[in-house]
Amino acid sequence: MYQHLYKRFLSARPDIQHFACHSHHYWPDVTREAMLEYWDDTAQMADDKWNYIFSKKMPQTQALVANALNIKSPERVVFAPNTHELLVRIHSSFAAHKKVKILTTDSEFYSFERQSQRWLQSDLVEIVRVPTAPFDTFEQRFAKAAHEQSFDWIFVSQVFFNSGFAIKNLKTFVDTLPTQPLITVDGYHGFFAIPTDLSELEHKVFYLSGSYKYAQGGEGACFAVVPDGNFEPIYTGWFAEFGDLHQRKEGHVGYAQNGQQFAGATMDMSPMYRLNASLQLFKDEGLSVEQIHEYVKQCQLMFLQKLQALNHPLLNLDNLMQHQFLPDKRSTKQFDKADGELDLNKVEVNELGLHGHFLTFKLEPKDVQSLAEFLSNQGIKTDYRGDRLRFGFAIYHNPLSYDLSCLE
Ligand SMILES: Cc1ncc(COP(=O)(O)O)c(C=O)c1O
Known about the structure:
3-stranded antiparallel β-sheet, alpha/beta, about 400 residues, 2 domains, single chain, binds pyridoxal-5'-phosphate, Aspartate Aminotransferase, domain 2, 7-stranded mixed β-sheet
């Protein structure tokens, strides 16, 4: 249904069934023009482009991100090439010699996981990790742990990268946590996939995400939504001072106070142009996150129905994490086989639980690897880590054309 927005990627990879969209999405065609626009702007304005970017392009992009998250203060959105840089900057906001006590989970993405391991080994932090499984009690167990001790920093994903399990309602979840620690939500698998309303959270949590996945602008345009607070991160770049230049005084390191105090230094802005183009496209098409989410759920259900019919010894519902996806819970009559298209207007009200845009199968690591390699050789691109094989879904899929016959 939306394939026409992705002509270039789809025609460049004609025989591929791309199920790795949760890792990196195809880019819509408009992002190619955005790359050229960046080049042309640079040619026309040279050094003056920075003024244009900071006064026009960045505020536009902040507004598009803010719109998707229902944030009232777009200037809270601060960009960086990756989320790692932002989370290190957040950590550096704590007093220099403080041993930071962190509450987190056993399922955070490597950017935080690896970095926090090193902080731990260097005696800079203490960490309590709550296991995400069993999922149905995770939110209660996490909140309980948060109240049992006094923490400085809570770091938790919105959708967990190794299962697809999603926090049902971020606001309700955050309300169950103590107010004193600094809270960071890794929203990389949430942003532009799961409908997310930060209107009541923008003042109190850091929300991290980026455009490599569901926002479809590719690598290099990550962001944090910065809450209220008098932050002066020690790991700081000169862009962090832009809002404070007028107050510059000898011996004083100034910081902007509106979120931009987490900015870094000179970076390639073409990723931001792509993100801008991609989000503007969805706005122009009238395609909301809610609609994208509905479409993707239908793709997931169609996929599971096809899979169920195969009776595969490994890829089956028993090995699927997150069983609310059992396809017999709803009909798929909205798939109109006559025109071969999925009509969103016929999609029924959601009966399913909230879930990320990928399905995760838990298998023996050796089976995961051999299955992923087999599928890849058959043109089915997935992605795997350890004992998890993940299939991602996107609006550039036509679920009626899923072909899993190589698994028969
Ligand atoms: C949950 C999550 N957070 C963050 C990232 C990316 O991190 P970074 O921007 O530091 O490379 C990913 C990428 O796969 C992810 O899955």
